[in-house]
Amino acid sequence: MSTLWNRVLWATMAIVCVGFAVTAAEFYLVTVTHSVPTYARLLAWSVSEDFAYGPESGFAQMTPYWRMMPAFNQMVLGTHAVLAALALAVGPFQFVPAFRARWPRAHKLGGRLYVFTALPAMLLAFVYLAITPMDRIYGGAPFYVGLMGIAVMATYTLVAAWVHIMRGEVVAHRTTMVLNFAVMLIAPLLRFWWMFLGWLFLDFGLDQATAHTAVLMFLGLQVVVGAIAVVHLQAPTLTGATSASITAAQVWATHKLKQGLPAATIAGLIAGGALIYGVFITLGAPDPLAAVRPIDTALRDQAVYASHGFFLWSRALGLSAVFVLTPSLLRAQFLTHHGAPRVEKAWLLALMFSGLGWIGCAQGYGIHGVGGVGAASYWATLAVATASLGALWVYARHRQQARQVREMTLHLVMIAWAPITQGVFQWGFLWTGFSWEDAFLSAAVMAPPLNLSVSYYYTVYGARPRVASLGRRHNTVSTMGTPYRSAVPMMPFSLASKSPRRT
Q: Domain count of the chain?
């Protein structure tokens, strides 16, 4: 990315973070003095009074609970807001290369301040969610599950980044912190999307509760895809040394990948068969979930098939083909490093069909299906994420960047598996007593960002093959059957390192 775009994006992020930090820190006073929060006033100014203060707004639904909230809950929520605000205000400056290079001591102090504010803030988030009934969270079960996921991911990535820098693994530290701060940005982005969607659909009477549900479906996936894009496009600037622990992790991962490909083939066949059978269920085939599936849901599925049957088949058959072809593609890219152009083209075509199916499902389930706008937002998000990562894949393939191609392949595979993960989570939520709609939306909040977070750690740990030589000579690499000369020294687990070291 150009220096100008980097500066514009950084300045925008810094303004948003600092501005949100002020309003977030104010929230402690809101819970104590029962005043109107600044974000509600901004919504009233930018959208409408009804959107900000109407019966479906967060302010109207949460104010009664805020006023009767126990003092301990107020302290936990208020302290969490203040500490998270401080972390968001400090975070943007940690990503400025000139700041790190010119004042490394200030960068370290800023990092310690970030850790000692963000980590307690997330721990307090766990406490607040544990002592707060689910129906007292705006948006109910889906938002509760999303908040828990944010706390888990932010805590894990922060601790992992700290461990990486203590080991001297600079690249792994930086890439992990990109994901950590992206997760922290969910809070200000949520308010932004409330404002933007409320303004965009003002003439359609969109209320805040509906906008809230729609945003929950894509916000987690948005920040993870954003983190992937940042690391992917700025990989040449991520320099640093590898370590024995990272090399050992790569050896272990390669071994497990080789062992797991047969199981992945079987799992892909089963998952593809389940997707195809799901379409037959709408045509009257026996439903194994008939005991828990509401009758109106089954009728809506039939209505969706009647109007969007082609897209349901496109999704099912496209994903089935992706699942079947993925083991061969992974073997070619990650293990043998020989080209598989026919498999690659067929795999991309299957992804296109599945993306087309997701677009149709977004329209169909938005009109007829359970979840309404939430379901439409979920399926549309998967389509947009697939298109975005696919564009990065094509860009890397065009530039013959073997490592980036492997990364994008793995991300696209995990996106393709998101509906399967979502289905498994949905069964689990149904088993715990969730309603069908809450189970669907809660699983939809969790599955896509969780899948991409798993593949993101392949990015953290280097995403490049082990080679015998660690010298500075150029290496000839085979990527997708097209040999090319790498522009950077090939060494295990260093992102475009200019200073390779032996491990």
A: 2
